[in-house]
Amino acid sequence: MCMCMLNKRTNILFEEEVWNKLSLLAEKQDTSVGELIRNAVKQVYLGNNKQEKIKSAYDTILAVRKTQKNIDYKELINYGRKY
Question: CA 59 to CA 72: how far, in whole Å?
């Protein structure tokens, strides 16, 4: 549960079926629907985004490629075949 001071409010309208499922889930997790929604927002929009991870990996690969020039690929392949 968030022990921080909540100071912004929003109003969200749900279909009856969605609200019922959220209410049941909140009850099972011993929390409120609001807390479920806050956690979902943090996870989806503020958390470790998959696209950010992909971009970071791509940038890392590019950085490594810049430092590894003139690689003898035959030697690398033969070295790998030893194991």
Answer: 23
